[in-house]
Amino acid sequence: MSVAIVTDSTAYLPASVVDAHSIQVVPLHVIVGGTEFSEGVDITTAEVAAALRSFKPVSTSRPSPQSFLDAYEKAAAGGADGIVSVHISADMSSTVESAHLAAQQSPVPVRVVDSRSLGMAMGYAVVSAAELASRGGTADDVAAQARSRSEASTVVFYVDTLEHLRRGGRIGSASAFLGSALAIKPILGLVDGHIRPLEKVRTSSRALARLEELAASAIEKADAGVDIAVHHLDSQARADDLAARLTDRLAAGDGEVRVVELGAVVGAHVGPGTLAVAVSPRPAP
């Protein structure tokens, strides 16, 4: 059986990785000032950051079921007997719902996986799924691989302000108001598919130091090697600095750290200045 892998643009996989593993990526949409764009296709993260800074209305929307059906039909036409479709947490987007609707009309069976995650925490799970598929894994085994690696991952992040999360309905208004009123710099985490406040810190420098410590703790808990992504939106220098420090914490050969810019969709909800770390333990050989 040949199993094809489909994901969505919030995995933020580098193009070289997508091409190397023949992964199909279906874009989510960003609406800026009433104009709709496809993430990773016709809008940049810099443009989204500029819109947010200038207080232009920015929102997001899921791909249509037809977009997924097109991807599934393309995979089937390319010889796939089955498809594993891995997507952003259903608690943050209805993308999974679109994938399920498309799967009902797919010419070959589709296993839709709710990663309960986003960003490279999901991206690394997609890569593991693709690697297993290339070794001849069944669709059920490939889907299980994606779920298990995603569930094992840790995502922690720092935002300059909670306002963008409040506007998008990803965090409560009371929490956002309290954070702004007290000038709190929150550390947030992804917990069972939801964004949850983890800690409250008074200054950005302390918040960034705590972000590093939480990521380092997740690294230390890994039994084998880990893959680490430092995500950012309009904060390249801080991301590079954090990546260098996390690299110093890894023993030789125990992992890899890469800097990956947050895309337009997640960026629209967290805002400029965001730093996030995804720590993804590698599956056992």
From TrEMBL:
Pfam families in UniProt: DegV
NAD keyword on record: no
Superkingdom of origin organism: Bacteria
Keywords assigned by UniProt, alphabetized: Lipid-binding
Keyword Endoplasmic reticulum carried by entry: no
InterPro entries the UniProt entry points to: DegV, DegV_C, DegV_domain_contain
GO molecular function: lipid binding
Coiled coil (residue ranges): none
Listed name of the protein: EDD domain protein, DegV family
